[in-house]
What we know:
Elements: E1 8-10, E2 18-25, H1 27-32, E3 40-52, E4 55-69, E5 76-92, E6 96-98, E7 101-105, E8 110-112, H2 114-124, H3 138-147, H4 157-162, H5 167-178
Parallel strand pairs: 5-7
Antiparallel strand pairs: 1-8, 2-3, 3-4, 4-5, 6-7
Amino acid sequence: MEKLGAYEIDLKGMAEDTCSYEYVLDDHFFESIEALDIKKGKVDVSLSVRKTAGIYELSFTMEGTVTISCDRCLDDMEQPISSEQVMKVKLGDEFAEEDDMIVVPENEGVIDVAWYMYEYVVLAIPMKHVHAEGECNKAMESKLSQYLCAQADDSDEESTASREIDPRWNELKKIIDNN
């Protein structure tokens, strides 16, 4: 991962108790962070840093879209991103990630938020990402349908019933029925 100095927050040098930052995570950002799942995108990030009693609360608000692969047809698809995350940071002896707190070395007093923003974008992507119904690559869908074993469609009940069942399956069913 390339070091992205534009995403470093100087916690020790904060002049006020609250600071705000604006970022745009674009194609260059995702290339620099070496994102495997995200091909490109544009995500607007508002970051608010608030200092209270030695703890820094970083509030991220993210809105935008990223381009990822569809799980069904493997074509690129636009995935909307909307996320709000809060991260707590404190200064300490050495860098550490404790339960819900990140410790930054006090002698540095700087945190690079690039990787955390990337992680928050990835967390905002649903587990299953597929095109809306009818928008997948038609050639890939037809290829997939050739390899489907069974259709859940009710109109195919007659054709499914009329198909001959391999007698080996019947023998295996007898074993299951005996247990």
